[in-house]
């Protein structure tokens, strides 16, 4: 049986910017419940909520102060249960974002740990002596800025590790008590009925027991992207055991932020670690057909087809939005076709279906300590001045919100929203697109052409990466096109910046 998460379209929600319902300017869980009709209409199967836990918000809830409750800004447990039941009532799954590498410095474990070296929770975190000259224990650099991943604690004269902010101390996964406590947090949500977890920087759990320096040449990249350790794999197997004990095949999809696709793929284990790992290559691949061909080929080559199902991502809350990256809505439409027709599970990020661009913040307006505000702007639901939000939201709307919004785009045949809904519809009707085999088809160098096939269902996907028309003959029926109404048919010319999906004879 194919697992549900092979065929699902997953939709990432950043609750803070989705929809506010109580007039405090911050999106909330009731805002998600209010838009389930919309999400059902769009056709997505699974919602991934970025962290909803109580948090001082140093990193917008990726600094968790309590793993088993809901941040009051977002709602409470009863409101969450209501959202979950309402989503399930529509056949949609819900997965939560689990943040196991670090807690908030306000988490009671850390508050206790920092109070004294003899705290029962001291060993929940990673403490080391520094150099006699006042230097940190090693040269690891934290995320986002060139600063040590260690903070000095005056009381004990020791340093604690934080691969992100000082407000996000790393948990010590080598301590079995940490693993037991964190397993409990998974059970808490699984008992409430969630359908799985997106696991934050999951490759960071295992640390080098020697805490050796990072390579001088590479250390500036930050320790997060360099930490690839064998110690992580047994932890992943333990986590999997906890989750898979539950019915319904809960999904575990990991953020494995390593630069080498082969290193990422290792976190699937032998089918006994992660179900899925994000493949971020498309976020960094230049918009040229040969570059994408290489990236796609590398992704498939590194995924052992027996147990490692690929994933595709064009956007998330950490990256520049695809329309801004490609500087073209037409190219973003071609990218959308790739996302939904490559072999693997597509992950969409809220607003991607509208073709949102990055929000533009002025000097002094930067909010995020990781400089990622652009992709985190509120979703414009309507064309009026408030764009469907009851009061001005916590940050500025994306550009062109008067026209790039749900209300306008729903009625517009050539909008990104219409395109995404139709594309998801084509995928839903095609076993070839959802789970069929993949093979390249020879084509001129501006085009990427591939075949997906399952039984009698055979589809040919043709993507033009150039602005110019390219001749290409196809014996088949045009099902879908980004640049034209597919009822127009196909005349052997792929227009510039256009993607086409055909049904072809088996
Ligand atoms: C992941 C999240 C990011 C967060 C970081 C620390 O990369 O996607 O938003 O800041 O982990 O938790
Ligand atoms: Ca609110």
Name the strands of the widest sheet in spatial order. Answer: 9-8-7-3-2-1-11-10
> What portion of the residues fall into strands of 2 or more residues?
15-25%
Radius of gyration: 23 Å
CATH class of the largest domain, please? Alpha Beta
Structural class: alpha/beta
Ligand set: alpha-D-glucopyranose, calcium ion
Number of discrete helical segments:
15
**Silhouette:** globular
- Main β-sheet, in a few words? 8 strands, parallel
- On the 0 to 100 scale, the average pLDDT is 97
Q: What is the CATH architecture descriptor of the largest domain?
A: Alpha-Beta Barrel
- CATH homologous superfamily annotation of the largest domain: Glycosidases
Write down the CATH topology of the largest domain: TIM Barrel
Q: Which stretches are low in confidence, meaning pLDDT under 50 for 5 or more residues running?
A: none
Q: How far is the N terminus from the C terminus?
A: 24 Å
Oligomer: single chain
The helix fraction, in percent, is: 25-40%
Number of strands: 18
The number of domains is: 3
Explain how this protein is built.
The protein has 506 residues and is an alpha/beta fold. The protein has 3 domains: 4-103 and 176-427, TIM Barrel (Alpha-Beta Barrel), CATH 3.20.20; 108-161, Alpha-Beta Complex (Oligo-1,6-glucosidase, domain 2); 436-503, Golgi alpha-mannosidase II (Immunoglobulin-like, Sandwich), CATH 2.60.40.1180. It has helices spanning 4-7, 29-34, 36-42, 77-89, 108-115, 176-192, 232-244, 261-265, 281-284, 289-302, 322-326, 329-341, 406-410, 416-428, 431-435; strands at 10-13, 46-49, 93-98, 127-128, 150-153, 158-161, 196-199, 251-254, 276-277, 311-313, 345-349, 437-440, 447-454, 457-464, 470-471, 477-481, 493-494, 499-503. An 8-stranded parallel sheet has the order 9-8-7-3-2-1-11-10. Helix 6 (176-192) packs parallel to helix 7 and helix 12 (329-341) runs parallel beside helix 14 (416-428). The chain binds alpha-D-glucopyranose and calcium ion. Calcium ion (CA) is lined by residues 20-22, 24, 26, 28.
